[in-house]
Specification:
By secondary structure, this protein is an alpha/beta fold. The chain folds into two domains: 2-124 and 248-317, Bordetella uptake gene, domain 1 (D-Maltodextrin-Binding Protein, domain 2, 3-Layer(aba) Sandwich); 125-240, D-Maltodextrin-Binding Protein, domain 2 (3-Layer(aba) Sandwich). The chain is 42% helix and 19% strand. The chain has twelve helices and ten strands. The protein has helices at 2-13, 43-59, 74-81, 96-103, 111-114, 139-148, 163-175, 187-196, 206-214, 261-275, 278-285, 296-317; strands at 32-36, 63-67, 89-93, 115-130, 154-157, 180-183, 201-205, 219-223, 248-256, 290-291. Strands 1, 2, 3, 4, 5, 6, 7, 8, 9 and 10 form a ten-stranded mixed sheet that branches. β5, α7 and β6 form a beta-alpha-beta unit. The longest helix has 22 residues, at 296-317. The radius of gyration is 20 Å and the shape is globular.
Length: 322
């Protein structure tokens, strides 16, 4: 994996300038398409639309969000990475791009080698939530209950290989508990069944569980980041009880391989300026998100690290795509 990381950072640091493509002094001179691999209404769509709106305001051209769900984001990823490297087709990278290389035996692209990192955007933790009818209130109680009742607890996710799924598998791997994964086609139906008691546990994104936690329909046990979430200040972190555990969702922008360095620099500079605005910080903090400012290479390193980490979990758990 070290070789792949070095290759990725080399691409980030030495991007070739291609002929007949956009230049930073005129870019963007027409609308920019931002492709996402998820259906409208979820956290990816929300993130893309927020940053698309902010970039439109700063750069004077519309950033059009294109939702192309399906194929565990591989359809959208392939379309974006095979687009002309002119800065007018961008892609919202997500944890799926770090899990899919281990999940799928054959892809029509190599995400690390075929993409150009532009900027990280946001990162937010999952939260371990349970149906209030389950007699557990802490992570140690969940572990003890699962060990006393092997195979009887179900944890829901938004699909096989999803961030919610691998977060649960990492928990299983580190605690050696036997809980059964139940895959849904999206987070919303999984939450419905969790609240009804058909499943008992979920490692859900904080923004989507937060309203149900506040309404008392779900009980939070811990967040999966290394520090407490500002929107759930009284909820501990899983790592307090399972040292080294961490799982979080993240989003950032990439383009196709060969994106001109000056265009990358301009987009990175504008995104960092957006992330520095107090109003933006407050709005994103209200969603439970932390910010990912920094140069393109920082985001490239995050992708490489996440690819390595989740690949190990997927192989350990023997996860196969649907």
């Amino acid at each position: 994996m070290m070789l792949r990381r070095r290759e990725f950072l080399r691409f980030a640091a030495a991007l070739p300038i291609m002929p007949c493509v956009a230049r930073a002094d005129t870019y963007p001179s027409r609308p920019v398409h931002l492709i996402i691999g998820y259906a409208p209404g979820g956290s990816a769509d929300m993130t893309a639309r927020l940053f698309g709106q902010w970039l439109s305001q700063r750069l004077g051209q519309q950033f059009i969000v294109e939702s192309r769900p399906g194929g565990a984001t591989n359809i959208a990823t392939e379309a974006a990475l095979h687009a002309p490297p002119d800065g007018y087709t961008l892609f919202l990278a997500s944890p799926a791009n770090a899990t899919n290389p281990a999940l799928f035996a054959k892809l029509n692209f190599d995400f690390i080698q075929d993409s150009t990192p532009i900027a990280g955007l946001i990162r937010f933790p999952d939260v371990v939530v349970v149906n209030p009818g389950l007699p557990v209130h802490t992570i140690p109680e969940l572990i003890a209950y699962a060990k006393a009742n092997p195979g009887k607890l179900n944890f829901a996710s938004s699909g096989i290989g999803s961030t919610l799924h691998v977060a649960g598998e990492l928990f299983k791997m580190m605690t050696r508990v036997d809980i059964v994964h139940v895959a849904y086609r999206g987070g919303a139906p999984a939450l419905v069944d969790l609240m009804s008691g058909r499943v008992q546990v979920m490692f859900d994104n904080v923004p989507t569980s937060l309203p149900y936690i506040r309404a008392g329909k779900l009980r939070p046990l811990a967040v999966t980041s290394t520090t407490r979430a500002a929107v759930l200040p009284d909820v501990p972190v899983v790592a307090d009880y399972v040292p080294g555990y961490e799982a979080s969702a993240w989003y950032g922008l990439v383009g196709p391989k060969g994106l001109p360095a000056d265009v990358v620099d301009k987009l990175n500079r504008e995104i960092n300026a957006i992330l520095a605005e107090p109003e933006v910080k407050a709005q994103l903090a209200g969603l439970g998100a932390s910010l990912l400012p920094g140069p393109p290479a920082n985001f490239g390193e995050l992708i490489a690290d996440e690819t390595d980490k989740w690949g190990k979990v997927i192989r350990f758990a023997g996860i196969k795509p649907e």
